[in-house]
Design brief:
Blueprint: E1 2-6, H1 11-22, E2 26-31, E3 49-53, H2 63-66, E4 71-74, H3 86-106, E5 111-115, H4 143-161, E6 166-171, E7 173-175, H5 184-193, E8 199-200, E9 204-209, H6 210-219, E10 231-234, E11 237-240, H7 241-252, E12 259-260, H8 263-280, H9 289-295, H10 304-310, H11 318-330
Parallel strand pairs: 1-2, 1-4, 2-3, 4-5, 5-6, 6-10, 7-9, 8-12
Antiparallel strand pairs: 9-11
Helix pairs in contact: 1-6, 3-4, 5-11, 7-11, 8-9
């Protein structure tokens, strides 16, 4: 099988590329000229792998690489909780997805797997566990990242409604090794390891082993698994932020913060950090108003549908959390134990 894969240099995409290569798939990997290629090192020698330099802002340049592929796996996304120019995020996440879907139709690519996010689900402040059928609309989306992913997901589902073989995967909060950037969740781990996490908010996340997310991506290329036009949450354990910090404390021996701050206090800090660090200094702030607003909702989710229809497995998150900690320490993001 020949697969055109976007996002292979990123955290989830790198694990997907490795899983596909280990299964013997031939890969065409979209990379940007500025991409860090470290996540592509050591891919299985049993796979015919080539890189294609380009980006989602110039999709027509990718047509020749897409031609002849058996599937497109679109994992790439502009994933930032603070951006100076939100228009660039929409052009990449929404219009880039729309263009890839169109080219896939025109080139008769049999399967299109779109990696969305659990962020598009209808979470509640009560912490109720949601699934793919929980009512949600664009107005529920907090911030440009969530809005752009929600709109891109609708583009993918619209394509499925007119007959394209598209399924949507919604990972929750993946953790594990190889989080090069790191992602916002990875920064939580890095800040904890560097003892820069003095307090916590009353919020919650669903953590999932990135290796299981990658395995299910590869399985989703099977035309007999999943239903076109459906969304599938890929999750693991529902945990409060305090529980996550306590697990990291148990692994590392570092103290878990005991001071809980209200959302209003966190919002004040985020406001000043975003305006001083972000807007005046031009650097990415550690805390953002958007992140605090998101934190008012516990992002607890069920993966029962993916278990039934894709063979997804919910596994304990402890090994993945340990793997992430070990990887960050080994690669200089935090002091060694």
């Amino acid at each position: 099988m020949k697969v055109f894969l976007t996002g292979a240099t990123g955290f989830v995409g790198g694990h997907v590329a490795r899983e596909l290569a280990d299964r013997g798939a031939d890969l065409r990997l979209l990379v940007r000229s500025t991409s860090n290629l470290s996540n592509l090192e050591g891919l299985s020698s049993g796979s015919d792998t080539e890189t294609v330099t380009g980006d989602l802002l110039s999709p027509e340049a990718l047509r020749s690489a897409i031609r002849g592929c058996d599937a497109i796996m679109h994992v790439a996304a502009d994933y930032r909780l603070w951006v100076r120019d939100p228009d660039a995020m929409y052009r990449s996440n929404v219009e880039g997805t729309r263009a890839l879907l169109r080219i896939a139709r025109e080139e008769n690519v049999p399967r299109f797997v779109y990696t969305s996010s659990v962020a598009t689900m209808g979470f509640k402040t009560s912490g109720a566990i949601v699934d793919e059928n929980t009512p949600v609309s664009l107005s529920d989306m907090v911030g440009h990242y969530k809005r752009s992913k929600f709109l891109a997901e609708q583009v993918a589902l619209d394509a499925a409604r007119v007959g394209q073989s598209v399924i949507v995967l919604n990972p929750t909060t993946p953790i594990g090794s190889g989080d090069v950037k790191p992602t916002p969740t990875g920064r939580i781990i890095v800040d904890f390891l560097n003892r820069k996490f003095p307090a916590y908010m009353d919020t919650g996340l669903n953590l999932v082993d990135v290796a299981e997310v990658a395995r299910t991506h590869a399985d989703a290329l099977n035309l007999d698994l999943g239903r076109p036009g459906q969304r599938y949450i890929l999750g693991g354990e529902n945990l409060t932020l305090k529980q996550i910090l306590d697990k990291m404390s148990a692994i590392t021996g570092l103290p878990s913060p005991t001071m809980k701050v209200s959302h209003s206090v966190a919002m004040v800090f985020a406001f000043f950090d975003e305006n001083l660090t972000g807007r005046l200094l031009g650097k990415e702030p550690r805390a953002t108003v958007e992140a605090v607003r998101m934190g008012k909702k516990k992002m607890f989710a069920s993966s029962a549908k993916a278990e039934r229809e894709l063979g997804f497995r919910i596994v304990p998150v402890y090994p993945a959390l340990r793997s992430a900690i070990d990887w960050f320490r080994a690669h200089g993001y935090a002091p060694q134990a």
